[in-house]
Design a protein that fits this description.
Elements: E1 5-8, H1 12-20, E2 26-32, H2 47-57, E3 60-65, H3 71-81, E4 86-90, E5 98-103, E6 107-112, E7 127-131, H4 136-151, E8 157-160
Parallel strand pairs: 2-3, 3-4
Antiparallel strand pairs: 1-7, 2-5, 4-8, 5-6, 6-7
Length: 164
Amino acid sequence: MTAWLTIHTRRVLGAFIETLGPLQGWERLFLISPWLSSFGKECGMSFEQFTKRVRDDRPKVYVVTRPPEFDWHRQAVDALAATKSANIALLPGLHAKLFVAETKSMSISMITSANFTAQSLNNQEIGLLIRGKGDGQALVHRLQREATEIYRTEGRKLVAQRNL
């Protein structure tokens, strides 16, 4: 039996992606991270595979990040926008990192110090991965509401909206 709460101190982003990857029917994703970049297969799937999965499953994706200042950040934002599933909000000064995924089989969330970047795989980070089952179900639901509130923060600049 898998615990509903696990603590990760290595490859924190990888723990989230590796948990999400095999889940069927991605329905909704929240990626709240000041920085975004592509990453390789060390996460269980590459960033390119991740964005392909978003295009294939067509979940509603909500991204909140800082306005890109670097090419690698801009390229990641553009790749997510190109999926036509992403609602992207730019929020100067964003510091929070929260990832939430709702799928047909289970919901998961991660509260973390790690950004959604390749560099975070090399940094000393910490993350709490919560599975939406048992006692974790109410917490994942609460974190999804928090992610929604962060997405709706006053002062954000919407740069992409999902095409229906």
